[in-house]
């Protein structure tokens, strides 16, 4: 893969741009004169021309192309904008003020074509409804079907969805490594940093104190997930925090898991009321109980997406660090297959 090209003799500017490139997960090719830069002009994903060499670059009459920027120490200088036009740049960049924009430009240019993935949230109507199990099994089924899948744990007090899947010791980044991120995250870099098995990548909380996830970090992760994965599944807390609200705002579909008893329906109705403030497409998944599943969905005024069956041996399987069998002949596998098919149609 080709690297961003920098054309400048200004060592301070080079140092600044090296830092920007590192934040975007890449390195630079540096040319100290336009003649050396010319062979790379058309193939570099991004070109940054230092204001010190802008005049000499303009004299070579480089061919027009996208993603050319002029880095100037005094962008308010009218001459900087004239030189910007002369070299065919699309904007003047002032470092360090515009550092974040340049990080995003580097990351976007270096990223492969977007997958335009679907984001699905799962939330429980009450404790123990099985939302985390459904989120995990949904992600497992999608990845088993060959879909690049990202499972995001958004419940910082839930004990860690990596532990639910027996992957708490797996090497890779956790939320604590991403809390300070904002703006664009390279999807490939995110996928490479996270624990993964097969086509499933996992972002969970680590052990110990779990700090709240800033909405900007959640937004950056989900947007990177949408670009780099076919499906992103988010396991939400019942008590919505700002990060959960951010996830809902970006969800294509949200599954609310309700238990089929009076208290379960009442609790789920309260959760759905809060969820509906942030997203539009909410569907019910019902655990069997004293009430009819269709009656439960009707009471919640939600379409019925499916029934989440009881799985007597599931807890023991998960506690042994094993993954559940989700074959088409199992009730749980059948539900997950249906939901994955429904989500795939939304792409």
UniProtKB/TrEMBL annotation:
Signal peptide span: none
GO cellular component terms attached to this protein's record: cytoplasmic side of plasma membrane; cytosol
One Gene Ontology term of the molecular function aspect: ATP hydrolysis activity
InterPro entries documented for this protein: cNMP-bd_dom, P-loop_NTPase, ParA/MinD_ATPase, Rv3660c, Rv3660c_N
Residue ranges constituting the Cyclic nucleotide-binding domain according to the UniProt record: 197-233
Record-linked PANTHER family: SEPTUM SITE DETERMINING PROTEIN, SEPTUM SITE-DETERMINING PROTEIN MIND HOMOLOG, CHLOROPLASTIC-RELATED
Name of this protein: Secretion/DNA translocation related CpaE-like protein
């Amino acid at each position: 893969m080709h690297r961003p090209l920098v054309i400048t003799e200004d060592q301070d500017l080079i140092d600044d741009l090296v830092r920007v490139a590192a934040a975007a997960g890449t390195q630079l090719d540096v040319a100290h004169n336009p003649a050396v830069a010319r062979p790379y002009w058309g193939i570099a994903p991004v070109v940054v021309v230092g204001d010190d060499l802008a005049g000499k670059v303009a004299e070579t009459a480089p061919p027009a192309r996208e993603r050319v920027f002029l880095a100037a120490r005094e962008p308010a200088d009218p001459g900087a904008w004239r030189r910007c036009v002369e070299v065919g740049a699309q904007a003047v960049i002032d470092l360090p003020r515009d550092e974040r924009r340049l990080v995003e430009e580097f990351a976007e240019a270096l990223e492969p074509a977007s997958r335009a993935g679907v984001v699905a949230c799962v939330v429980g109507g009450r404790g123990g409804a099985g939302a985390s199990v459904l989120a995990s099994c949904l992600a497992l089924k999608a990845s088993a079907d060959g879909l690049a899948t990202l499972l995001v744990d958004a419940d910082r007090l839930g004990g860690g969805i990596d532990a639910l899947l027996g992957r708490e010791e797996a090497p890779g980044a956790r939320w604590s490594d991403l809390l300070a991120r904002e703006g664009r995250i390279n999807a490939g870099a995110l996928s490479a940093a996270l624990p993964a098995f097969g086509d499933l990548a996992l972002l969970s909380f680590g052990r110990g104190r779990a700090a709240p996830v800033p909405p900007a970090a959640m937004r950056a992760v989900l947007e990177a997930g949408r670009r780099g994965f076919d499906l992103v599944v988010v396991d939400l807390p019942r008590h919505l925090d700002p990060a959960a609200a951010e996830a809902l705002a970006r969800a294509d579909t949200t599954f609310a898991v309700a238990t089929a008893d009076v208290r379960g329906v009442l609790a789920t109705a309260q959760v759905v009321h809060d969820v509906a403030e942030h997203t539009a497409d909410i569907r019910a998944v019902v655990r069997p109980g004293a009430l009819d599943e269709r009656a439960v969905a009707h009471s919640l005024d939600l379409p019925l997406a499916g029934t989440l069956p009881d799985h007597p041996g599931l807890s023991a399987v998960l506690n042994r660090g094993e993954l559940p069998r989700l074959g088409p002949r199992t009730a749980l596998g059948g539900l997950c297959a249906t939901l994955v098919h429904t989500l795939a149609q939304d792409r």
